[in-house]
């Protein structure tokens, strides 16, 4: 029997690789007839580099830059080969991640994606054929203007202090676009929100990044002005592009450069050969830290459910927290199981040792029931 384990990270607790390995070891220790295949997975957020590196190899390139508040820092990105292309893969959250700050209105008004643009410049100097940015987990809401400034865009802001979206007067991309004439630029997004408006970057995600209703209205109005400018001067209609609001509008900046937005889950699945592995499976375990109303918006469990349906393979979800979801979403899975075995505080639930023990035990019990059911059905057929 073949079991595929492809669980996304439980944020703040355990990585995809750690969770998958815990389930694999527990199953193979108790069920000799089962062969487990672990596939590290992500949706374009944290863990994306680790998932691609585990599946595809490559080397990590170090470079100096600044974080979202302009503080000097060092980061690294992955350079790998696929289909004879030299590819740089940059995880945005390593430079402009929400976890690098204590979000408040002051940080939102200061945060910029400028440092991420510097990392892309470094990758361009390495003569890569393709640059992929994963957009999940950002702490910025600057419309991607800091990113564009670092690459040479003229926004009319010569001082370059604070959130550039608040002070930009224009957006001239002529110098920047030349640099990407021969480069395939892709962004892996984990959301489908647009650049501005009620479903836009500021209004949907700005509050969790520290914004008050007043500053979010201002950011949204500024984003609309930038979008209008791009439509008038470059014939780019950002609000017709799903994902242009990802990472505080960074998705829109990449579209403005002629780049492409892809589902983070689908892109990473291609690197990990997930579909091929699922097609051979008898059962799939997936999961993430929280199953909730956001799960169907490009998250790993939903993406894997679509694959398992294609091959008529049962899929079970393991999670740290499970809140009410639409019946239509729940119907995609054979079961959704919270791994907690008793009432527990958030602090205790996030401890890595608890998470790994609980997910291993839950997976074992589910598999035991699955095997019993399968055996019973065989006996009935006889």
Automatic annotation (TrEMBL):
Answer whether the UniProt record assigns the keyword Endoplasmic reticulum to this protein: no
Keywords on record:
Kinase, Transferase
Source species, domain of life: Bacteria
A Pfam family this protein belongs to?
Gly_kinase
According to its UniProt entry, one GO biological process term is:
organic acid phosphorylation
The GO terms describing molecular function are: glycerate kinase activity
The record's listing under InterPro entries reads: Glyc_kinase_flavodox-like_fold, Glycerate_kinase, Glycerate_kinase_RE-like, Glycerate_kinase_sf
Q: Which family does it belong to?
A: Belongs to the glycerate kinase type-1 family.
Mind telling me which PANTHER family this protein's record contains?
GLYCERATE KINASE
Q: What is this protein called?
A: Glycerate kinase
